[in-house]
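hi! just following up on the protien thing from before. the input was this:
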Amino acid sequence: MSQIASGGFFDEWSIYDEILARNYMHHDDIFHDVRQFLADRFGEAPFTILDLGCGSARHLAHALQGRTVQRYVGYDISTVALSHAARNLAALNCRIDLLHGDLLDGVKADGEKFDVIFTSFALHHLSTPQKDDFLTAASRTLERNGTLILIDTMRDDDEDRASYLGRYCAWLGSRCATLSPEARELLIAHIRANDFPESARDLEQMATLAGFDSPIQLNRFRWHRAWLLGRAADNTL
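and the predicted 3d structure came back as:
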């Protein structure tokens, strides 16, 4: 993926903000369950979170309401998105660091460990070797009893990338009814140029080899899945 190309698309934030506001990619449904998981897992206990590809943090900021966030670190390649994130996260009342960089920059940063590593609709921008690298680094960056919350598009096991792109772009294009034709064209062009999702089966294999237990599926909406990944018991890194 070209970081410049992807960053350029997300700098047109009004397009993606419309997608979020209209729930075209099921963000509301997905994050309802994320919020419940965080409440069940932590209650009032303090925890730290590393958000990779944080975007505007619009939905995650809402999901974190009522929790005791001790420290939040977010990375994104769009400076426009980071400015939105600063406003959306202000109510957390904790130390917040928003940094310009991609997923691999963030997960490999300075050796700090986190209770939660979070990434939403970002991993599919990486190549397969980069995803392997990311997952291995994530298992090392996660506290022993921590959780990687992974939300992303995943191909069906019988889909190659071309088939997936045809089906996904047709589906999303038909859903985004309030976008102008020009905005929909830009959205579809971005997806076709920059999205390289793995199949769920392959991604699970990659995560297991990187030191994670088998994923727990929090929810699924068509190609959109939310997984909870914990470090395997014998992963002592």
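The chain has one domain: 3-230.
The beta strands are 46-52, 68-76, 95-100, 114-120, 142-153, 216-221, 224-230.
cheers
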